[in-house]
From TrEMBL:
Residues 340-472 form the GGDEF domain. Its cofactor is Mg(2+). InterPro entries: DGC-Regulatory_Protein (IPR052163), GGDEF_dom (IPR000160), MASE1 (IPR007895), Nucleotide_cyclase (IPR029787), Rev_trsase/Diguanyl_cyclase (IPR043128). GO terms for molecular function: catalytic activity. It is found in: Cell membrane. It comes from the Bacteria. Its main location: membrane. The chain crosses the membrane at residues 20-41, 53-78, 126-145, 165-187, 208-225, 254-274, 280-299. SUPFAM superfamilies: Nucleotide cyclase. GO terms for cellular component: plasma membrane. This is Diguanylate cyclase (GGDEF) domain-containing protein. Keywords: Cell membrane, Membrane, Transmembrane, Transmembrane helix. PANTHER family: DIGUANYLATE CYCLASE DGCT-RELATED (PTHR46663), GGDEF DOMAIN-CONTAINING PROTEIN (PTHR46663:SF2).
Length: 475
């Protein structure tokens, strides 16, 4: 999907300003809310084991643009409320805020430059995001270390503090990915649409059951780890339901599972009083699981996209002839076993060439998309519709006689008789339809298509906007 630099494009300056204010309020409020969650996982003053707000702000700068950088700094300034005295703001507070602002604000602008089309859920976005998460965590760690007295630390203490800070930043950064994607869906769909989409897509019996299994497995592994620290190495087992959900339902669902499962685990570690070693391990697994979900999910989605392109027409979304032949082969074999008849309709759009010549191929493509949906509307879910090529379509009607096929043809002719509005012009199109019957006219799909094509040409020759049945010469 393509996203503009503004959430709402408008020539009206007042509307533009209102949108900026609304986006800014959402930016600040969501950033503040994430800060409050991060404070729940604070282990020492100013250090949280789970800190996604910085990377979340980076993603918002990527989406909204550089004009929201002042809002970004204001969000950082207010994000500490009510845990710090922002009214007595001093240099000690300003330096870490400035560090966060510069590192993540610059990263957001760089991401925006790299992903100039603002496409979410594609490989380029996710790969650049993962690189950004690692680099921002490294830079933040380097700046953090530059502010402490290194000569007072032993080598082991230095490694422990730097690795802890790096892993904490990296965990927060990758955790911000699913949070940002959920927020993006909210901006796109609105509150009602977001809730409706979440309920209809996520709260299905299979998915709820898988989530329960994930949480039970997580609690079990952590409880065993509480009895004996050696059991903590089995924490990787929670990857099984997370990866399974990604393979079965795709990248978006996998990220939600990884986020909920790992946040639940981290909460159990915190509130059960676990050792720093155990929490550190959970942080690493948190990061690994989300990265694994992204990599597996991208492969899964690309596989589905490859299959879709191989089996469906790019323009109309209807089945292509390869898929159509496969479906018809199975349906014809089943009809033979049951002794049922089936029909093939060959449809040609009357007057479509003149539309292309007059208004151009872009308008012609839009009309073909509309026509394909109208044709689909006229048949049952059990029937198959495919684009044969150009402005020609074929339909396989399962368990259908001549009379029923004729009825469907009349319905299509009537449905497509309504004029199409192009700018200020009304364009009238019609369809010529040829019908063949299986097994009377042939026992294979290619023969049936050929004979229905011949019947269609007869309909076109004898007046258009009508149908003809192969072997019959009247309507």
């Amino acid at each position: 999907m393509d996203y503009s630099t503004e959430l709402q494009n408008s020539a009206d300056a007042n509307t533009h300003s209102q949108q900026y204010v609304l986006n800014s309020l959402l930016f600040i409020l969501t950033f503040w809310a994430l800060n409050q969650v991060a404070y729940l996982f604070e282990v020492t003053e100013g250090v949280s084991l789970f800190y996604p707000p910085s990377a979340y702000a980076m993603f918002l700068i990527f989406l909204l643009g550089g004009k929201y950088l002042p809002v970004h700094f204001l969000a950082i300034y207010l994000g500490g409320l009510p845990y710090r005295d922002v009214f007595n703001y001093n240099l000690e507070m300003f330096i870490p805020d400035l560090r966060q602002f510069v590192i993540y604000g610059a990263a957001g602008l760089i991401l925006r430059k790299i992903n100039s089309q603002r496409k979410i859920f594609d490989g380029k976005f996710f790969y650049s995001v993962m690189v950004a998460c690692v680099l921002t965590a490294l830079i933040s760690t380097a700046v953090f270390l530059s502010g402490i007295e290194l000569n007072t630390l032993s080598f082991s203490s230095l490694i422990e503090r730097s690795s802890s800070f790096f892993v904490g930043n990296l965990t927060g950064a990758v955790t911000a990915i699913p949070i940002f994607l959920l927020f993006h869906q909210f901006l796109k769909l609105g509150w009602n649409g977001f809730i409706s989409s979440l309920v209809s897509d996520f709260f299905k019996p299979q998915k709820v059951a898988a989530l329960i299994v994930l949480m039970i497995l997580t609690a079990l592994v952590i409880q065993l780890g509480k009895m004996d620290e050696q059991f903590s190495k089995y924490y990787y087992l929670i990857l099984i339901p997370i990866v399974w959900s990604t393979v079965k339902w795709g990248l978006g669902n996998g990220l939600v599972f990884a986020f909920i499962g790992n946040l639940f685990a981290l909460s159990l570690f915190i509130f059960s009083g676990y050792s720093h070693y155990g929490i550190f391990e959970v942080q690493i697994m948190f990061t690994i699981s989300i990265v694994a979900v992204i990599l597996i999910g991208l492969v899964h989605d690309e596989r589905d996209l490859f299959y879709h392109r191989a089996m469906y027409d790019d323009l109309t979304g209807l089945a292509n002839m390869r898929l159509f032949r496969e479906v018809c082969f199975t349906s014809i074999a089943r009809a033979k076993r049951k002794g049922h008849e089936s029909s093939v309709l060959f449809i040609d759009i009357d007057g479509f060439k003149s539309v292309n010549d007059t208004f151009g191929h872009k308008v012609g493509d839009a009309i073909l998309q509309k026509l394909s949906q109208e044709i689909k509307y006229c048949v049952r879910d059990s029937d198959s519709v495919a684009r044969f090529g150009g402005d020609e379509f074929v339909i396989f009607l399962d368990e259908t006689s001549d009379e029923k096929a004729a009825g469907v043809s009349e319905k299509i002719i009537k449905q497509l008789a309504n004029p199409f509005r192009i700018h200020t012009d009304a364009v009238e199109l019609g369809v010529s339809i040829g019908i063949s019957l299986c097994p009377r006219d042939g026992a294979d799909i290619d023969t049936l298509i050929r004979k229905s094509d011949e019947a269609m040409y007869l309909a076109k020759k004898e007046g258009k906007s009508t149908y003809r049945i192969y072997g019959k010469h009247h309507r």
